[in-house]
Design a protein that fits this description.
The complex is a heterodimer of chains A (456) and B (455).
Chain A (H helix, E strand, L loop, with lengths): L5 H18 L3 E17 L2 E19 L2 E7 L4 H17 L24 H4 L3 H18 L3 E19 L4 E19 L2 E2 L3 E7 L6 H14 L9 E7 L1 H9 L2 H4 L2 H5 L20 E4 L20 E6 L2 E2 L6 H7 L7 E2 L11 E2 L4 E3 L6 H6 L3 E5 L14 E6 L2 E5 L2 E6 L2 E6 H6 L1 E4 L4 E3 L2 E3 L2 E9 L2
Parallel strand pairs in A: 8-15, 14-22
Antiparallel strand pairs in A: 1-2, 1-4, 2-3, 4-5, 5-6, 5-7, 8-23, 9-10, 9-14, 10-11, 12-13, 15-17, 16-19, 17-18, 19-23, 20-23, 21-22
Helix pairs in contact in A: 1-2, 4-5
Chain B lengths: L1 H8 L4 E17 L2 E19 L2 E7 L4 H19 L15 E4 L12 H18 L3 E19 L4 E19 L2 E11 L5 H4 L2 H14 L9 E7 L1 H12 L5 H5 L19 E4 L20 E6 L2 E2 L6 H6 L8 E2 L8 E2 L3 E4 L6 H5 L4 E13 L4 E13 L2 E6 L2 E6 H6 L1 E4 L4 E8 L3 E8 L2 E10 L2
Parallel strand pairs in B: 4-6, 8-15, 14-21
Antiparallel strand pairs in B: 1-2, 1-5, 2-3, 5-6, 6-7, 8-22, 9-10, 9-14, 10-11, 12-13, 15-16, 16-17, 16-18, 18-22, 19-22, 20-21
Helix pairs in contact in B: 3-5
The chains are: A alpha+beta (456), B alpha+beta (455).
């Protein structure tokens, strides 16, 4: 692809900032993101599709009389960039002043980050990607003929980000990513299992497609012969996939400063108080080695850092971007984020980076062996319908397995879990040592006592 | 045109090119403060080629000719590499070729309306919500409009120019009293113009949402267990969409949804008839041609309990030996075209609202949803934001944080009665990419459903 290099990218950003200032903006900021992706897709048990994707664009924020305007373009010509800058300026003029607006980010001392770029990912040929997909698929299907692969993908991508503002904050960073994943069902007689899913993703070329294949097959076939459970409180072990879903719509929002400042967080005013069991220590680690969300700076040019959120159960800090931090006259924690496929279209909002639960020292076997009657919950359905303010949830645990007398037994048919995320955090009795990252969550399997389960 | 020819020269079985010029306006207002008003321009091209039975898809955010020709070549090369492994080659159902130009004529075109006027709509919504009651703690409003033109061309002779027009807004209110937090939200969406806000006025919408958030403060949490329920159009819609609709998207049916061996069979009680209709004027899920160049239509999915139709693209239509249904959409040039629902609903019958509640000793009335999700095996979950107890046939105390779950096929069989009212609700559906849809129906009664929730 036609990739812009560092100097050219930054000079385009600078052009947008200068254009907005010339129009009359008090201050301005420009952000460029380029994304290039190559993927091989599996559907219904075979490789059926390849995808290439190239997009780049520029987003510019302009401030006039404490009102912020924004415009973007994905055509990076001189004219379109200047047009975007003046649109941003005129939309600022059309908006009302925000008394809480202070200024864009100042200061520019970026951290070094590690294992976030691997040139080998860029050099993978079509044949090599097809080969990874095909090894993963074969491992999944050769083991057990009841297993049927529904979907799968191998994706290699590279993104570059650049930022420039009126205060000479200037940053450029480049990162790679590769992932492979499979979703499968198993069929026996008239029974179809729910979809089971496994994946491996890294910032460097270190994925293990065979592991993904064999794990997907193992999970799927063990989900056959599901049985109902009796409604009562159980000890529940959440895998990272399940815990990520549970926290993403509840706790992760509750620690964002904008939720707190706007009375949308049940954690408001609870800094220094106990909000979780003393087994729980959580960092938001924006510079975690090889972390999915590790970058040198956040999406408004603040250096990324490691923030302690919960220490031994005590709430320590919320997550801030520049705007919310300046409102309280504290430092931004470097959590400004422009998301999705097209970050240049977005204005920054607060997002966790790598939300890390410090692991325990039990193996998963030990964690399970201490449970008399429990559930191992792999995935949740309906977590996005949780109450984002109170943290109340009511979700279906599929797939999940029974744990009896310290051993994992048969799969469970459509049991529901309910409670609040804060009860869950307070009832964490142990964490295993099998840390991995799923989405923004970096955690091991987590054991929680006394979770309300409704069988059927 | 040139790109299609390049593709043909490279030995493809099929080539299509979709070019887009899009303009978007977005704004977010939090408690009366504009977070950022955004305007933007996006141009790009999506190319799909079929080589030896394997798809190659390329998306390029540019109109640069050299870059586009490179992309076609790369797509062909990658598809060729992948086709070495293909066992069952992809084939497409034959279709007619269409040449057409669709121009949208809104009464109030968002592209010609000033940003200040759009900010004003959000401001009056915000004011209505925050002034409703002192227990309302926050109000977030998102507004989006998309205008522009799509150009579609393929090597079968289809050429379509089609204007795009979407207006969407979402309002979210939270309320707090003591330690009880509640929230309510609702979406407005239209493919007509900004005139949608003349019907759904900011004042009416704002009051509806604020009232719901406040009323939930006194709500109790539900008992867990199995109960008879009356479900309102808003929840019926999301249930039909999530729990049934996705399973009837032929690509998901083929991936092993529980419908795979049910075609032509009775899967629901006699009173259940379901349509997916892309032709309702101005509805959020309506359009003239889909992103494979096929005209949108009204598709009957369930007729009196029997499944008679699925939603198809050209690829699945070939496999099922039928015709494509005009359900294919791509969010923009960055995404490949896939089977999506349009306006999906359960058709009304003849029960009155009161008849639906008759004889229920204890149950729940589920009025509006918070979110829903389903698995291919038919397990579904729908979170409920507004619900009430039903006691001796009467609507009683409000209930919060309920959710329902069950198996789609079992639940469809338990639909006992269907009302004669009807409502469609706009929404956005995610399937790896976003599509604008509507769903709805009348009030219905279901014999029993599993209710979860209650912390």
């Amino acid at each position: 692809m036609e990739e812009l290099e560092k100097e050219e990218t930054l000079s385009l950003c600078e052009r947008a900032v200068k254009a907005a200032e010339k129009d009359g903006a008090d201050e301005a900021e420009a952000y460029i993101c380029q994304i290039h992706k190559t993927a091989v897709d599996i559907e219904r048990g075979q490789i059926v599709k390849t995808v290439t994707y190239t997009d780049k664009g520029l987003g510019v924020r302009a401030v006039y009389n404490k009102a912020v305007g924004f415009a973007y373009t994905n055509l990076l010509t001189k004219e379109k960039i200047e047009e975007a800058a003046s649109k941003a300026f005129s939309s600022a003029k059309a908006s009302k002043p925000d008394p809480n607006w202070k200024s864009f980010t100042m200061g520019k001392c970026f951290t070094n980050v590690y294992k976030t770029f691997d040139g080998r990912i860029l050099e993978l040929s079509s044949e090599e990607l097809v080969d990874i997909a095909s090894r993963m698929l074969q491992t999944a299907t050769e083991k057990d003929e009841r297993v049927f692969v529904v979907d799968g993908e191998v994706e290699a991508s590279c993104a570059t980000k650049a930022i420039f503002n009126s205060y000479d904050v200037s940053g450029y960073d480049k990162g790679t990513f590769i992932s492979c994943g499979l979703a499968a069902v198993a069929r026996e007689a008239n029974y179809v299992t729910p979809v089971c899913f496994e994946f491996d993703a890294k910032r460097t070329l270190d994925i293990d497609p065979e592991w993904v294949g064999s794990e997907t097959a193992r999970l799927t076939s063990s989900a056959l012969k599901a049985e109902k459970v009796v409604s009562k409180p159980y000890t529940v072990v959440f895998t990272q996939l399940a815990m990520q879903l549970l926290l993403n719509y509840t706790l992760v929002n509750a620690v964002k400063a904008d939720y707190v400042q706007r009375n949308q967080s049940a954690l408001k005013g609870k800094i220094g108080e106990k909000v979780a069991s003393e087994n729980v220590t959580i960092y938001d680690d924006g510079i975690l080695e090889g972390g999915f969300r590790t970058w040198r700076f956040d999406d408004e040019g603040v250096d990324r850092r490691k923030t302690i959120v919960v220490e031994k159960g005590i709430l320590k800090s919320f997550l801030y971007d520049n705007y919310t931090a300046r409102k309280e006259e504290v430092d931004s924690t470097g959590n400004a984020y422009r998301g999705g496929n097209t970050p240049y279209m977005e204005t920054p909002s607060i997002e966790s980076t790598n939300f890390r639960f410090v692991p325990g020292n039990k193996s998963t076997d030990e964690l399970i062996s201490e449970i008399d009657s429990g559930l191992l919950v792999y995935l949740l359905q309906g977590a996005h319908s949780s109450n984002p303010v109170s943290g109340e949830f009511s979700v279906v645990a599929v797939p999940s397995w029974k744990i009896e007398k310290g051993e994992i037994k048969t799969a469970v048919k459509g049991a529901m879990l309910s409670g609040t995320v804060f009860e869950v955090l307070n009832n964490v009795s142990a964490l295993a040592n099998n840390e991995r990252q799923v989405g923004t969550l970096v955690a091991p399997w987590i054991r929680v006592e006394n979770v309300k389960v409704i069988g059927r | 045109m040139e790109l299609v020819e390049v593709g043909m020269r490279l030995g493809t079985e099929y080539v299509e090119v979709r070019a887009q010029r899009l303009f978007r306006t977005m704004l977010t207002m939090k408690d009366g403060i504009i977070e950022a008003a955004k305007e933007g321009l996006e141009n790009g091209v999506a190319i799909r080629v079929l080589v030896s039975g394997t798809w190659g898809f390329a998306s390029v955010g540019s109109f640069d000719k050299t870059q586009l020709i490179n992309a076609v070549e790369k797509a062909c090369k990658m598809a060729k590499a992948a086709s070495r492994k293909v066992r069952i080659p992809v084939k497409l159902a034959e279709t007619k070729a269409f040449e057409d130009k669709i121009v949208s004529k809104p009464r109030k075109n968002p592209a010609e309306t000033s940003l200040a006027e759009k900010i004003q709509i959000a401001a009056s919504l915000n004011k209505t919500v925050l002034n409703y009651d002192h227990r309302i703690k926050s109000c977030t409003i998102d507004y989006l409009d998309i205008t522009g033109t799509n150009y579609f061309i393929n090597n079968n002779g289809t050429y379509i120019e089609q204007d795009k027009l979407y207006v969407w807004s979402r309002v979210l209110a939270t309320a707090k009293e003591g330690e009880v937090y509640t929230f309510a939200r609702e979406e407005i969406g239209s493919t007509a113009g900004l005139e949608v806000f003349e019907v759904e006025t900011p004042e009416a919408v704002g009051e509806r949402i604020a009232k719901r958030a406040v009323e939930q403060l006194k709500a109790k949490t539900p008992k867990g267990g199995t109960f008879p329920v009356v479900i309102g159009p808003n929840v019926v819609g999301v249930f039909i969409h999530e729990a049934f609709g996705h399973l009837a998207e032929a690509d998901l049916t083929l991936k092993g949804s529980v419908l795979i061996d049910k075609f032509g069979k009775k899967i629901a009680s006699d009173v259940v008839t379901v349509y997916d209709d892309g032709t309702i004027e101005g509805a959020f899920g309506s359009f003239k041609y889909d992103d494979e160049g096929i005209p949108a239509q009204k598709t009957l999915l369930i007729k009196d309990g029997q499944i008679v139709g699925l939603m198809h693209n050209r690829e699945t239509a070939y496999q099922f030996k039928t015709s494509p249904t005009g359900n294919v959409r791509a969010e923009d040039f960055r995404h490949e075209p896939v089977i999506r629902m349009r306006n999906t609903y359960l058709a009304p019958r003849d029960c009155t609202f009161e008849e639906l509640f008759e004889g229920i000793k204890f149950g729940y009335y589920l009025k509006s949803f918070r979110g829903g999700q389903a698995n291919l095996d038919g397990t579904f979950q729908v979170g409920i934001q507004e619900a009430y107890e039903i006691v001796n046939g009467e609507i009683g105390t409000p209930v919060r944080n309920a959710s329902i779950s069950g198996n789609t096929l079992e639940t469809l069989q338990k639909v006992e009665a269907v009302g004669k009212d009807f409502q469609l609700w706009p929404g956005r559906c995610g399937k790896g990419q976003l599509a604008f849809v509507c769903d709805g129906g009348p009030h219905i009664r279901v014999k029993e459903v599993l209710i979860g929730g209650g912390a």
